[in-house]
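lol ok so funny story. i was supposed to be doing the assay writeup but got distracted and ended up predicting the structure for this chain instead. priorities right. anyway since i did it might as well share w the group, maybe its usefull for someone
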Amino acid sequence: MILTVTLNTALDITYRVRELRPHASHRVDEMTERPGGKGLNVARVLAALGHEVTVTGFVGGVTGRALRDGLARTPEVVDALVPVSGSTRRTIAVADTTTGDTTQLNEPGPQITPAEWAGFQ
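and the output, tada:
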C-alpha cells in the first residue's frame, strides 16, 4: 500500500469555454469536478495503475464533503483525511478550447489550528 500526504487538498473545478476573452461573459460548454491537490493527483494516477493508495491530509466544509464524495467514487483510493473546521480550497481552471490555453485561479487553503495539526500527527 502507498500513502500520499496532501496538506492543502483542493476541489479541482474545470470550465471549458469556446474562447476566453477578458471582460466578457462566457457560456461554459463543459464542467468537471474532482478531488485535487498534488498528493491526491498522484494517488489517482497510482490507483489507475492498479495500486492501492491511502490519502491523508486536511479536509473541511462543504467543499471538503464534495471532495470526499469524489474520492468515494475513485476505486483503490482509501480516504484517511483529517477533518478541520476551515473549508477545503477550490482551484478553478478555465480552459479555452480554441487555443488550448488555461487560466488557473487557486483559492487559499484553510488555516489549521494547533489542535488540528496535533490530531493529524
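The first helix runs from residue 38 to 48. The mean pLDDT is 96.
back to the writeup now i swear
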